[in-house]
Amino acid sequence: MKNLETEITIRGTPEQVWSVLTDFARWLGHLFIPGLFDGEHAFRLELAGAGLTRLRQSEQFRGILVPLLPRAMYERTRQGFEAMNRALKEQVEQRHA
Asked: What is the DSSP code (8-state) at residue 34?
């Protein structure tokens, strides 16, 4: 199993962040056959102070291929999470400025 998690603090309430993120809170996917390479994706919104929200985006990878895949794949995934986090932060903060 391999876990990947990123986080960012956004100026906005959890409700404001959620309205931009939509109701897509969790995703479980498989590569062809369950147990081969599974990914469980999650978003968590936490109060981080007055008018601030901490977004935690994570993926838990399971399956027999997990240890065989190159580190670069996980690094690209982490970079994609961070890019999405920054874009979400920008959208929320522009809408609710």
From this structure: T
Distance CA 11, CA 51 (A): 6
What is the reported pTM?
Answer: 0.81
DSSP letters spanning 37-86: SEEEEEEEEEE-STTEEEEEEEEEEESTTGGGS-HHHHHHHHHHHHHHHH
Give pLDDT tens digits for 32-42: 889 999 988 88
For the chain, which domains are there?
Answer: 2-95 (3.30.530.20)
pLDDT in tens, 53-70: 999 999 999 999 999 999
d(CA 50, CA 59): 28
CA distance 46 to 66: 29
